[in-house]
Amino acid sequence: MAGLPPRANEHRPTAAIVLILFAYLFFSFVDSGAKWLAIAGLPALQLSFMRYFTHLAITVFIAVKSGAIVDHIVSGRPLLVLVRAMLLVGSTVGNFFAIRYLPLTLTSTILFSAPIIICALSWPMLGERVGIWRWCAILFGFCGIVIAIRPFDESFHIAVILSLASAICFALYSILTRKLSGTVAADTMQLYVGLAGVVSLFPFAIAEWKNPETAGQWVILFGLGFFGWLGHQLLTRAHGYAPANLMMPFGYSFILYLTAWSYILFDNLPDAWTITGAVMIVISGLVIWYRERIAIRELAQVSDRAKHID
After folding, report:
1. DSSP summary character for residue 9
2. Model-level pTM?
3. Which residues, in sequence order, are CB contacts of 298 under 8 Å at separation 6+?
4. pLDDT tens across 67-108, in order?
5. In angstroms, rounded to a whole number, what is the distance separating the alpha carbons of residues 62 and 290?
6. Of 257, 218, 289, nearest to 107 (Cα)?
C-alpha cells in the first residue's frame, strides 16, 4: 500500500526512538515559530493556513514526482479520512490562537493530556476495555489538568479553553488514526490533511492576511508547514520501526523542548502550578501506557494459547 513504511524496517526500536525525538523537536519548532509570529501581530488563521499550505505543496510535489498522485487521492474510507484531517486542522487552529496568550509550557502540558482523553474515549469509541488502574490514572491526569490551568485563579485566561479544545481535537484525531491505520495509506492521509487545511482556512486567511515585516518572518512562516510535514513524516516512519506503545513515553520530550524554547525565546519558565500539573499528567500518561502494554501482552498470550489448542 502506497505510503506505508516497508515491513522490512520493523523491529528497530532504537531508530524509532531517535525518529520520535526528532519528530517532536520539529513540532516544537512549529509551536515556537507560531508564537513568535503571533506576538509580531500575524493572525492565527493566517499562520494555520500557511502551516497546511506548505504541507500540501510538499506532499503534492512528492506525489507528482513519484507518479502516485492518483493513488494518494483515492481513499477507501474518504469520510473518516476527511473528518480525521479536519480534527487535526481544528487542533492546530485552537493551539495557534492559544499560544499567543499562553506560555508554551502551559499549552504543551494541556496538549499532552490527549493520551488521557484518548484512553477515556477508547471504551465508547473503540470498544476497548479500560481497567480500574487506567480509570484511576485518567482521574489523576484530569486533576493535573485542573491544577495546571487553575480555572478559579485570577491569572486564568480564556485562551485555556481553546488549548483544551485543541487537545480534545487531537485526541479524536489520534483515535481515528488508530482506526484507519493499516487500511489507508499514510501519504493519502497526509494529502487529505493538507487539502482540508488549505480549503477550509483559505478564505479566513485571505480576509485578515498581514505580510511579515522581515525576511526572517517569511522564513518562519513557510517553516511552519515544512517542519510540521517533516515531523509527521518522521512520526510515520517511526511507527514502521516499532509499535506505538513502545514510543509513547518519548513523546513527552515535546514538553521539555518547548520549556527550553520558552526560556530561550520568550524568557519564560513554568511556574510551580504548571510544573505540578505537568508532572501529574505525565505520570498519568505513563501509567496508562504501562497498563496498556500489560493488556497487549496478556492478549498476545491468550492468542498464543488459543493457537496451541487449535
Report:
1. G
2. 0.82
3. none
4. 766 665 666 678 888 999 999 999 999 999 999 999 998 998
5. 38
6. 257
